[in-house]
Amino acid sequence: MSGPILITGGAGSVGRSLVACCRADGYAVRVFDLPVCDFTGLEGETGIEVVKGDITKLEHVEAAVQGVSSVLHLAALLPPASEADRSRTFAVNVDGTATIISAMQAAASDAVLVFSSSVSTYGDTTAEAPPLGVEHPQTALDLYAESKIASERLVRASSLPVVVLRIAGIAVPVLQEPPEVWPFTAEQRLEMVQRDDVVTALYKALITPAARGKTLNIAGGSTWQTTGRKYVADLYDIIGVPMEMAAFRGQDEPGWVDWYDTGVSQQLLVYQDHSYSAYLDTLRSEVARLLEDDC
Questions:
Q1: Does the pTM of the predicted model rise above 0.70?
Q2: Choices 3.30.70.580, 3.40.50.300, 2.60.120.590, 3.40.50.720: CATH for 5-173+193-220+261-273
Q3: pLDDT by residue (tens digit) across 154-168?
Q4: Which positions are catalytic?
Q5: Percentages helix, strand, coil for the chain, rounded to the nearest 5?
Q6: 143 near 83, Cβ under 8 Å?
């Protein structure tokens, strides 16, 4: 790849990890994100160019794609913010994707586009037999999933070499405050994926020619296949919260989580490096460190 790799939404958690991954392999990176974002550790660094702009503005995107060899498109309005305003969500997630495609087709038509989509597009699959493959119909439960379904259609209809990754819920390997209500039922099938494995999958989708033209599920694999109750119980045990404090969605309103068929994606991208038990061990180590700091 002769030109830089453009990462939209590059100032976020996954974006920053992708920047580091690309730089570790010697690739120049161009980070595109909103001017209000924190670019600490990105601006002024060797091999990293920061372009501040709005993905909904064609002139900003045109400047960002000039001379790029590939694009990792992460920028999107995520839940819960995505559920507050349909017009805004579709402007950012769908129209923004259309703008990326238009600018690439005009100025970087040979560049590979890796699109970050979501397994939330499968909707309520509690009555289905797992695991879910990419051929499963898409039925949105919320505005975010609806916007991703629309964006996928745009990506596949383009003339660009593309890869679509439907990514499961991302488990960040740091302690976080539990939500007031978990977005799944207690008995619902649940498979997440560790953030660093998502980064590996995105990067390898970019550099693996055999992935082009494919839609792939990205999830943690068999060790991550559990239930909502077991996942929350494991987490609460680590942070010392009684399980009685857990609040789940009602059985009549299940979330979009499930178990996924990742056989093809793992074979192509070889990204499932962090097991569920290793993720829990990371959290335990973090708790131990915090307790030592308090002593």
A1: yes
A2: 3.40.50.720
A3: 999 999 999 999 999
A4: 144
A5: 40, 15, 40
A6: yes
